[in-house]
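I hope you will forgive my troubling you with a question about protein structure. The record follows directly beneath this note:
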Amino acid sequence: MAEKKVSLVKTVLFTICSILVLDSLAPAPAYFGVQSITMWVILTIVFFIPYGLLTAELGSTYPNDGGITYWSKLAFGEHVGIQVGWFYWTSCAFWMPSVFITFSYWLSYKFFPNAPAAVMALLAAAMCWLICWIGIKGIELSVTITAIASLAKMAILIIFGILGFVYIAKYGSASDFSWQSLKITSLSDMSSGIAVIAYNLLGFELIGSIGSKIKNPNKTIPKMTLLAGTVITLLYLFGTFGILAALSQVDALDGFYFALEELCRVFGGGQDAVLGVLVIISCLTLVSNMIAWTLGSNEALIAADLDKRSAFLAHRSKKHGTADNLYIVMGILSTIMIVLNFAFGSDDANAIFWDIASFSYVVFLIPYLVEFSAAIRLRYKDKETVRVYSVPGGTAGMWVCGILCLICVGASIYFLFADDIAAGNMFAFWVKLIGTILCFLSGEILYRSGKARTVKQA
C-alpha cells in the first residue's frame, strides 16, 4: 500500500499551527503597547517575508526528512548538522513544560481557581505525556490533529479581533490607537521587541522535517509559504489589536487569558459560558502546537545520523515508525521541570523555573543562524541542483534575505542577554549562558560518540 502523502492544505494548516502561538502572543503588547502593532508590520517586512522566501527555496530544493538539520549538514557537514539537530530538540524539550504550565493556569483561572499545586502539576504533566503518546502513534495522526487545531486557532484570533471592535463600540478602547501611539521614534524602541516578535514568527522550516512525506514538495512548499505567511501575519495583527482594545496594561505571561476574559464582557449574562468555551478551545490549540513542534524537533534530530550515535535515542517504533524513545525522554524531562516548578509553591520557585525555561529561547534561535547561512552557502556549494523555486533576485536576492534574517535573529539573541543585564537579573543571564554552553558540550559528546562508534565498527 502506497504511503499517504501530506497535501498542500495540510501543510498550510500545519505551518499555521506551528507558527501561530497563543501563549506567547501577549509579551509584545505587554512590553511595547500599541507600538507592538507597528513592530509586527516592520518585522513582517524585514524578517518574516525574507525568512519565508529563503525557507521556501531550501524546502522545495531539498525536500528531505530532517529539514533544518539536513540543510545545515549539507552546507557545513555532519558536525554542524548534529549540533543544529541537538539544539533544536533541546529547545523543544525545555519549552514543552512551560506551555503546559500555561495550559494548567488558563484552565484553573476559569474552572478551578483554588486548585492545589499538585493538581496543576498533574494536569501539566499528563498533557506532556498525551503529546508523547500522540507523537508515537504516527505522523499522519499528528498532522491531522494540527490541521484541525489550526482552524481553531484562526477562529480564536478572528473572534479576538471582532470582539475588540465590539468592545470599543460598547465600552471604549483601553488603549490609544492614534498615530502618535503607533509611531516608533527610534531604533531603541524596537530593541527588545525584535526578540519577542521574531520568536513568534519562526517555524516555516518545521514542515521540512517530514519533507519526503509531502505531496509534490517542490511546488507545495513555496505555495504553503505564501498562503500560511499571509494568514499568520494578519491573524497576529488582529489578535494583538484585540488584546490592546481590552487591556491598557498587559500581563506578559497570561495576558491572552485576561484579555479574553475582559472581551467576553460584551456578552453580558452569557459571559461565563462563552469564556468557558473559548478557554477550552484556546487550551486545545496549545496541545496542537506542541504536537507540531515535538514531531518536527524529533525528526530533525533523527536526521542528524542519530543512529550512528545512540541506538536508544534513534530507535523507531516498529508499529508506527516514529521516534518513540525521543518522545519518552522528552516526556521525562518535561515532567521533571514541571515538578520542580510546583514542588516548592513559592513565587521565587516559579521565577526560577521561568528563568531556566528562558534559556530554551536562546537555544531555539541559534539553529536559525546556521539555516540562514546554509541557504547562502548552498547557492555556491551546490549550483548543479535545479531549484524549482528560487528567492527572487538570484544570488543577490538570497544574500539580502539571508543578511536580514541573520541580523534579526542575531539581534534577538543579543537582547535576550542584554535585557537580563539591564534588569539586574544576573541569575537569568547566567542560566542562559551556562545552559547554552552545556547544550553545546552535550552536542559535542553526542557527535564524538558517533565518531567513536564508526571507528570501532571499522
Observations:
- The domain at 8-453 is CATH 1.20.1740.10 (Amino acid/polyamine transporter I).
- The longest helix spans residues 347-381.
- Residues 157 and 239 are 5 Å apart (CA to CA).
- The chain has one domain: 8-453.
